Sequence to fold (164 residues):
Amino acid sequence: MRVSLVFGVAAVAASVGLAGADEFKPPPMRDGFWETRSALTVDGKLLSDTSIKMCQSKDLTQSTQAAAAEISKKNECTGRITKTSGNTFVQESRCAKGPNAGSDTKAIYSYTGDTAAHIEMHIHKGGSETVTVMDMKYLGSCPSGLQPGDAIMPDGKKLSLGGK
Fold:
């Protein structure tokens, strides 16, 4: 569960703005150590609420975005981006294939410069709603011994996701 949560956090963060990527270019996030607090709710019931710290880099972000774009293409996802204010964008999308086939997704992405972001993603499928809320903040330089892609789990264990 923890490994998939880390990948889920990275994928959601990277995928915001992929449909209609020509119109949406979030600000580059600062290289370094980031904390992401993530809460997952299904039909109003909180399933998880955790915080993960991860060493990030522009190369890692680009790699994750490219992987998310490939998944989006493979699952025949379409969408549109709207800008609701100076630092907030909304992406609405629908995928024809894959695990979320037939679902409607709405992601709201807000950022504060290159040091903080907030993402709220609502997925409606049938009569069910899954909501993921993530708050990401820059903590500083990566600690000694950590490379981009290395994560510190809530229990303090280090996990390498194979970044550059």
Notes: The two ends are 24 Å apart (CA to CA). The chain has one domain: 2-160. The first strand starts at residue 32 and ends at 42.
